[in-house]
Amino acid sequence: MKIVKVLNNNAFLSYDEQGQEVIVMGIGVAFGKKNGQMADLKGRYKIFSTSDSKINERFKAVFSDISEEYLEITERIIFILEKEYDKKIDDIVYVSLTEHIHGAIERLKKGIEVKNPLLMDIRRLFKDEYETGLMALKEIEAVFGLTFIEDEAAYIAQHLVNGQLDQLVDINDMSKLMQEIINMIKYTFRMEFNEDSIYYHRFVTHLKFFAQRIIDGQVYVSESDDIFEVFRNKYTASYECVVKIDHYLQKHYHYSLNTDEQLYLILHIEKITKNSQIQS
C-alpha cells in the first residue's frame, strides 16, 4: 500500500481502491518510511476508513500529536479484548481511549488521580472489560513507570463498553438499569448469583445491550410469539419475574417488553437461577 503521509512510525495515510482516504495503523508499519513509498503490510495492522470528516480529523490528530507509546497501549488493550474475550470494538475507541490514557497519565504525573464512582458496578457488571482495564494498567506501568489505582481500570473499561454499543450511552444510567433488573431477580428468587458462572456472564452481556435499547427507546418488532407461549407456560416462575420487570420498566422508563424480549429474559433467568445458591 502506498504511503501518502507518514503520521508516525506506526501509522500513515493512504487511499483504498475506491480512492477514499484511509489510515493504516500497526506496529512499525511506517518505520523508516517516507511519503510516496510503499508499505509492506505484514503481521498485525488495522485500516481505518470513515466518511465522517470530523472523525477522520480526530484520527489524524491523535496519530500525529500523541506519542506512539499511547497508541501502542491502546492497540494492545483492544486486541486483548477482541481476541481473549471475543468482543467487537468500534474503531472510534482507538481515538477516545488513546486520548483518555494520554490525559490520565498527564494528570497522574501532576499527582492527580480521579476516583471512579462506578468502580463497583463496572467491576461486577462488565467483568471482561474491567479485567482488560487492569491489564492496561500493567502495560502503562511497564512503559511509563506509573502506577494507577484500580479506579482507572474502570474508566478504561467504560470506553471499552461504549465501544461495543451502537450509540454512546451514559454508563451510569446503563449500570443503574442493569443492577435494578438483577436485584429484582435476586429478590424474587431470594438468591445470590454465582457471578463466575458462564450463565451469569451471558446474562449480563445480554442485559448490557438490552439496557442500551431501553435507554435509547429503541423498539423492535416481535417475531417469536409462538415460541414465547411455549416457554411462558414451561417456566412459570421465570415468566412471573419477567412480568414484574415489565411493569417496572413501564412505570420508570415508559418501555414495554415485547414477546421477544420477554422470551430472552425468561430463558436467561431460568438458567442463572438454576446455577445459583439460595440464601439461607
TrEMBL record:
Top-rank lineage group of the source organism: Bacteria
GO molecular function, one term: RNA binding
Keyword match Nucleotide-binding: no
Domain PRD: 65-170, 171-279
Keywords from the named record: Repeat
A GO BP entry: regulation of DNA-templated transcription
Protein name as it appears in the record: LicT protein
Species the sequence originates in: Enterococcus aquimarinus
